Amino acid sequence: MGLLKKLYLTVLISITALLATAQNIEVAIAEAAKILAASADTSRPLRVGQINISGNKRTRDFIITREVHLKPNDSLPYYRVNDELQKVRQQVYNTNLFNEVKVELVNIANGAFDISISVKERWYIFPLLKFQLVDRNINEWLKKYHGDLGRVVYGVKFTHYNLTGRRDLLRIILLNGFTRNISFSYFKPLSNQQLTQGFSMAGGYVQNKEFIYKTGHDNKPLLINNGNFSRKNIFVGAGFNFRKNILTSNYFSVTYNHIAVADSLL
Prior knowledge:
By secondary structure, the protein is an alpha+beta fold. It is built from five helices and 13 strands. About 20% of the residues lie in helices and about 45% in strands. Strand 10 and strand 11 form a beta hairpin. The chain is elongated and about 80 Å long. About 15% of the residues are buried.
């Protein structure tokens, strides 16, 4: 009778595994079946032991475990093991820090198990060269304006999605030509020891030779361009966020802008 019961539970786990595969969620369903088969009393809750992280070369371990709702010494009924593993995998994947996330159950004994989370980190650094013509096409730019670099926006945009391994985001923009833009932004979602608070800051200086200043009677935008930089904008900003649980985040920010335009427009 006991053998039939274990066989039934194993088949039940296998059916659940097919559903999980259909949802493209890779979890170690077979290991869950081993736990059930090894448990003499399936009504007895299973205990979570250690949560081990591997594969992360830059990301800190606590950034990953912060996203996982399961903690050591938590208890789970056997029929919830598969669903909870799926949640763990999805929670880690939702950080957008990894290309692959695999969750396995290891060290299964005496109604307890450890969770192994192995990840494959994505590429975090994205430098992007920019060369954008203001004119309609390169032929007009070469023939009419003789390849004037003053009618081109060129430079570099740099983004790092995991600067210190704490899921912090840094963006730097350095553009010149028709538009000048020297700016940065930095966001650190977890900055205190309790991993519940974070901050952001940004600042920059932008100059434009051409911009929309109003809408005409025919509902078309009217542009100003006197050949010089007609609009200048200096901005600074700061923000604060707190996140007491996995599902809820709150953000507050304030920004100051100083805008100056050409006298001819005024």
